[in-house]
Amino acid sequence: MRGNRSIKHWVNGDLVFELQGPQLDENDADARVLIRQGMPIMLKEGYVALQAESHPTEFRKIELLPLAVD
d(Cα 7, Cα 20) in Å, to the nearest integer? Predict the structure, then answer.
């Protein structure tokens, strides 16, 4: 992600998830550490991560597109 834009998650051409205004959760212990270290609550950059919960998951044909330069 770059800037304070929405995060969009597409699966097979369908928009399945969109997040506006991503921010740290002050109720989360890890986020509180970052906030105490001076990180702003509103996020302006981040990383892509793949996550599977509770069982092995295989991913096929993952496509990452470059961000346009502002």
Answer: 7
Beta bridge partners of 45: 2
Instruction: Give the residue from 24, 45, 21 showing the smallest Cα distance to 36.
Output: 24
State the DSSP code for 30: H
pLDDT of 11 strictly over 70:
yes
In angstroms, the CA 58 to CA 52 distance is 9
Whether 53 and 47 have beta carbons less than 8 Å apart is answered as no
What's the mean pLDDT when you consider all of the chain? 83
The H or E element that residue 35 is part of is helix 29-36
**Token pair in block for residue 30:** 């890890």
Q: Name the strand (E) or helix (H) holding 15.
A: strand 14-19
Helices and strands counted in the chain (H then E): 1, 2
